[in-house]
């Protein structure tokens, strides 16, 4: 199963990396207008940014292998349509823009589902290793894809390059077809249990170890009726009054983060989730739009409860912004003042080698503080920015960029693994869509403002400010007051929930705090970042 996952991610990563070069060369064959190229490339980015929150919600509602499958199929079909049009000699910019927008919209749905897919397929101790391998594949694809797309386009034409991309997406979809994940097995188990219950489920209580629900939650034929708005935790003496609203509106007992709660079709007790299929129909009766908004709010609530995550995402967003500055300013400086295009290619390849080595090293290093290692790795982008600001030999800039990208390579699998362990699986898609949105939005912004800012301040000043900014934003996350203790055993397998055990607070503390809170206007529990 893990082999199929890795093969599928390899094919999908390579196909995704082929698209920009193929599309750029196709547009340039159609017109020499740089503005037209900008419009087509923007048509890729905008739909993805707009649809990422929607994709996050769907990734949490649906089985991740199905979401990833349909995303790959949609991208494959869009690339096949582009291939047919280009092979027929029809270089219509509007068609290219629309089909590219379709492909990027599919990425918005498929990307948030991948972390859940890894969680559903890979056992916890092996996730860091698998995430590292996926990172290596993605890194190598980003390096090889432009050369592959360029070669195929020069030899056979952009239509054949688009056709190759479509075939790769189809191959990725084949690896996902029929994949049995832990989520699929749980769903089949619940379906079998419901069929076995049959007519005997006209009235059912919700029994959870350690929880007493007064007269209980009774399931009637037409839905779920909440007979008691009081729940108590045995041994704690904490009562949650007014925490249960009618199930037709929303089935919640103090919210999923308060130690005791019914969220959708789940009951959560002290961090342990117990499925309750009997509540599903009442939840499904809610309108789609209101349910979507509720899911978005809950996803944001999961983020707000974790200041360390917000601090890290902010730091990573600054990293992408500063990377946009560097990738605009550095090539111009190197080509004009430091020896030309060949030297710039040496710098780029040194960064690629550094990132690949970092990804390989991450699961093998004796990391005791994963959060600190991640943020220091991101802060290392200070080095190439400083080398750019202070004129020096090309070798210095190449070594600095190598170090920065090595830090990124270490960060990628650690971040994927820690987030997958610490974010509840039911909210992982929404949380990761927020993370992806910040990253994808900040990089183009840096690319866009680099030249105007350099014209105002000069390259030296802008590079120094950018370097200090990326270092400060990422190192600040390490000292965040609510940051988890990231001390682990000095083994790769130690990175995970055990690594953050001191960070996880007991559910009873959440319950006591929640009992003193009110509800806001829309009935959702209001939570300040803790």
Q: Mind telling me the C-alpha Rg?
A: 25 Å
Q: For the report, how would you describe the main beta sheet? A: 3 strands, antiparallel
How many separate helices?
A: 18
CATH topology grouping of the largest domain = Growth Hormone, Chain: A
Distance between the termini: 39 Å
CATH class of the largest domain: Mainly Alpha
Keywords: Cell membrane, Membrane, Transmembrane, Transmembrane helix
Subcellular location: Cell membrane
Membrane topology: Multi-pass membrane protein
GO molecular function, one term: transmembrane transporter activity
Describe this structure in words.
The protein has 530 residues and is mainly alpha-helical. The chain has three domains: 1-183, Up-down Bundle (Growth Hormone, Chain: A), CATH 1.20.1250; 191-286, no CATH class; 287-496, Growth Hormone, Chain: A, CATH 1.20.1250.20. It is 66% helix and 6% strand. It contains 18 helices and eight strands. It has helices at 2-30, 34-61, 64-87, 93-110, 113-121, 127-155, 158-176, 182-197, 280-284, 288-304, 307-337, 341-361, 370-379, 382-389, 394-422, 428-457, 459-478, 507-515; strands spanning 211-212, 217-220, 223-226, 230-233, 238-241, 260-263, 266-269, 272-275. The strands form three sheets. Strands 1-4-5 form a three-stranded antiparallel sheet, with helices on one face. Strands 6-7-8 form a three-stranded antiparallel sheet, with no helix packed on it. Helix 2 (34-61) runs parallel beside helix 4 (93-110), helix 3 runs antiparallel to helix 4 (93-110) and helix 14 runs antiparallel to helix 15. The radius of gyration is 25 Å and the shape is globular. It starts with a helix and ends in a 15-residue tail after the last helix. The model is unreliable at 198-286 and 481-530 (pLDDT under 50). The chain crosses the membrane at residues 36-58, 134-154, 160-179, 308-332, 344-362. This is MFS transporter. It is found in: Cell membrane. One of its GO terms (molecular function) is transmembrane transporter activity. Keywords: Cell membrane, Membrane, Transmembrane, Transmembrane helix.
